[in-house]
Structures are given as structure tokens and as C-alpha cells.
Amino acid sequence: MTHTMETRQPRPSPPGDRAPRPGSASQRSGRRRENLAGYLFMSPWLAGFLLLTAGPMAVSLYFAFTDYNLFDAPQWIGLSNFQEMFADPRWQKSVEVTTKYVVIGTPLKLAAALGVALLLAQSRRGQAFYRAAFYAPSLIGASVSIAIVWRALFTDGAIVDRAQTQFFGLNVGGWVGDPDWILYSLVALTVWQFGAPMVIFLAGLKQVPRELYEAAAVDGAGPLRRFWNITLPMISPVLFFNVLLETIHSFQVFGSAYILGGQGNPCGPADATLVYTCYLYQQGFENSRMGFASAMAWMLLIAVGLVTAVLFWSQKRWVHYEENAR
């Protein structure tokens, strides 16, 4: 029996069914439509960025080189604001107070956040409630009402004063009235708001493989050794993120420092809580020296940028990323 093989030629497709050639007019038109749709969706953000961020920044940069009091036209004075700033004792005091606040408050806040995150990472009853309870201060801690309550807690004869006298034998009086102690009440307030970094730490801890802890336990490693050799290296990217974020936030503290100082004595007795932004506010809105305040704002931006650059440079030494993850 013979079989005949019949070769069929593919039927040519009609001209209307042909795919457009790369770079054809139809493809370019499609790309333009896609780009237009993308720009339309981005337009609210772009308008907000230009009108509320980039525009005011450009104007403030101009004001930094002028004598401007909010009422008269700005007068160009060059670098006079910066020269006066560096020679101002109160400006130097604000830099000192802010540096002390950042150096003390940020590590304590991150240590509290990591410690609580380690506890909450373990399975236990009521875990959701504890997470919400520890996170709540981050939502309300920055409010004016909480700062007022915090001031009442640390005044002379209040609950903190009575507790430290009764249990520790310390008779230092109210913290908010003592120039040597009021900054520590501000540090205590920021440490109390550890909920946000705690949640980020908790998410990082959930990503650490359990097999590493089991293998370390078989080898005889104790809890501290497992924490130092496994937990910290594995969550070092999360730790770096929290350090960077909380450091920037610490440089920007204002409301709580201003309120803890009290009426008639903002920024604390003897300028004990004269953080940088508090002095900037006084110069700009109380003394109507908007040009000087703008110069201070740009110096703060430069300082935060330098600190951020140092942190990014140092991460190569202590931040460990997974292979091919960067």
C-alpha cells in the first residue's frame, strides 16, 4: 500500500492580520498612549511634589541668602545668615542638644523595639493583642495631648518623682524643671514610641529560617550566641533601615521638646531641650527672621544628608545581604 505525502503551503495571512513591525507607527502610537496614561496617573503626585516640596525648597534656598522678616521684601545679604549662625551661641547649643538627643535616644529606642520584637516573635496566647498594645504609642505619642500628659508625669511631686524617691531613694525633683534631667524625659518619651520599628523588626525576625537556630542548638550554642551569630546578621538589613529612619526622625523632633519646656519657657529651662528645630521655629516665627531660619533649615538638610551618607558607607561593614539580593 502506498501513501502519498502531500505538502501543504501555509496560507498567507490577510494584510490586516499582519503583526506590526518593530518601530512601526502603530507601535509608537501605542507606546505614546501608555506613556500618556502613566503620566496622567502620576500627575497628582507630580503636582504635589512641585507645589508643596520642590517649590518651597527653592524659595527657602533663596531666602537663606536674604534678610526677610515676612512683612518686607527680602533683601539679598549673601552669606551673612550663615556667618551669624556659626557664631551664635544658642545655635551651637541647639546643635549640642540635638546631637545628645540623637546619640542617646535613637539606640535606646531601637534596643527597646528589638527586645520587644524578640518576645513577640515567639508563639503565645494573645499575641495579636500584645502587638497592638505595643504599637499604639507610635500612633498617639507624637500628639500634643500626650506631650502635655508626659510633662505632668515628670513635674515636681508627680508620679515619677514619688516613685524614684520611694523605690530608688533619688530626690532630684521633677525632671521637666531641672536642666540636667529634662532632656532625659524627652528621651523617655521617644523610647516609649518604639512601636513602629518594633513592627519592622518583627517582620525581619519572621524571615530568619528556623533551621539555623536548630543547627546552632545542636552544636551547643546558647541564646546569646545564637542572637549574636544568627539573629543580628540575618536581620542586619532591617536593622540598617530602622537606624537610618529613626536617626532622621530624631533630627526632626520638635513638638514634644517645645511642649515639655512649658509655657513662658519653651525649649526647656536654660535651653536644656533647645533642639535644632525648636530654635529654628523661634527664629522664623517668633522673631520673624525667616531668612535666618531658612539658612538653619538648609544646614539641617546638609547635616542629615551627611549622616545618611555615612550610614550608607558603613553598611558595607556590618549589613549582610543574601546572595544576589542586592
UniProtKB/TrEMBL annotation:
Protein family according to the UniProt entry: Belongs to the binding-protein-dependent transport system permease family.
Native source organism of the sequence: Streptomyces candidus
Classification via SUPFAM superfamilies: MalF N-terminal region-like, MetI-like
Protein name in the entry: Multiple sugar transport system permease protein
Start and end residues of each stretch annotated as Disordered: 1-31
PROSITE patterns per record: ABC_TM1
One Gene Ontology biological process: transmembrane transport
InterPro entries: ABC_transporter_permease, MetI-like, MetI-like_sf
Predominant cellular place of this UniProt entry's protein: membrane
Organism phylogeny: Bacteria, Bacillati, Actinomycetota, Actinomycetes, Kitasatosporales
Record keywords: Cell membrane, Membrane, Sugar transport, Transmembrane, Transmembrane helix, Transport
Gene3D superfamilies: MetI-like
Start and end residues of each ABC transmembrane type-1 domain: 95-311
Pfam families linked: BPD_transp_1 (PF00528)
Cellular-component GO terms for this entry: plasma membrane
Taxonomic superkingdom: Bacteria
Signal peptide: none
Topology relative to the membrane: Multi-pass membrane protein
